[in-house]
Amino acid sequence: MNKKITFYHCHTPLHIGSGTTLDIIDLPIQREAHTNFPVMPSTAIKGVIRAEYGLEESDFSLDDFPEKPEACPETVNQDKCEEFFNLFGYGDKEGDIIFTDGKILLFPVKSVKGVFVWITCPLLLERLERDTGIKINFDKENLRNKGAIVSSEEPVINNQYLVLEELSFEVSIDNDLKNSFDKLGLDIDTKKIAVLPNDSFRYFVKNHTEVNARTRIDQTTGTVKEGALWYEELVPAETVFYNLIFSRTENSKNIEKITNFMDNKIFQFGGDETLGRGFTKVSILEGKNE
Asked: Are the beta carbons of 236 and 11 closer than 8 angstroms?
């Protein structure tokens, strides 16, 4: 199957919410049920790309965007209109392009040395290889013997320890890890990547996302409106997700149209656009034919 591997690098904090909850966080982010890892649902990705692609290829606004090909105004290129609905679908007709959920690959965590590092874990790297064919090389035996594998000595204290938030890990430096991430072409500092045990990674993505307190101001009094305090969870800036894009009919030209449109552009995903949330750089890597 012909597919494209797409990376999503959050330039600002991201909130794709899961609705309200009875927990202390009123508006949590969406997470995978079985791992509790943050996720970018495919609906959130496809909806943004569909809207942006349609606006770029048309002469009308999102408010009067047609619901089906027959409704396209005569002033709009009809071939472009047909192409748009073929790619994304309409009504009960499926579009040709398939977007999978965005799975987390790298998560930023505050470091005593080097400001922050991107962490990942064996489970994520195994999923990346299964999904995409990309193998990230690192010494798994050393990870069992030590607490973490790091891509260089840059975030390491005394050539021995990596200190993230309140936790310390004994480390092994592995240049193969850096070289593997270099090949992905991501706009990140590959000297600051660490592989942690699965449980340690889960601890950080569960307990070290951003949580913002927000209030609503009473426009009459200029003070905080009574009962209008809530807490919102955010995936921190610098987080990296990936997903796959492929064609239901294995039409390589359709895949090229979408991925050429997305590559090296910044899109806004999730809520709170006017607060600067969710601005994310998208980059495309060729997938393997299977």
From this structure: no
> Tokens 């299977």 belong to which residue?
290
Do residues 146 and 169 touch, judged by C-beta distance below 8 A?
Answer: yes
Nearest to 38 by CA among 246, 270, 265: 270
Angle at which helix 42-56 crosses helix 252-262, to 10 degrees, equals: 90
Q: Which of 4, 5, 3, 12 is nearest to 242 (CA)?
A: 5
Three-state DSSP state, 230: strand
User: What is the C-alpha radius of gyration for the chain, rounded to an integer number of angstroms?
Assistant: 21
| Residues ≥6 apart with Cβ < 8 Å to 277 | 12, 13, 14, 15, 234, 268, 270, 271
Per-residue pLDDT of the chain (290 residues; tens, 9 = 90+): 689 999 999 999 999 987 666 567 788 999 999 999 999 999 999 999 998 986 555 555 555 567 777 777 676 677 788 888 899 998 888 999 999 999 999 999 999 999 999 999 999 999 999 999 999 999 988 888 889 999 999 999 998 999 999 999 999 999 999 999 999 999 999 999 999 999 999 999 999 999 988 776 666 666 566 656 778 999 999 999 999 999 999 999 999 999 999 999 999 999 999 999 999 999 998 654 44
Residue 101 host element (H or E): none
The CB density around residue 246, as the number of other CB atoms within 10 Å, is 20
Alpha-carbon distance 183 to 172, whole Å? 21
Rounded to 10 degrees, the C-alpha dihedral 229/231/236/239 comes to -140
pTM of the entire predicted model: 0.90
Mutual orientation of helices 42-56 and 78-88 as an angle, nearest 10°? Answer: 180
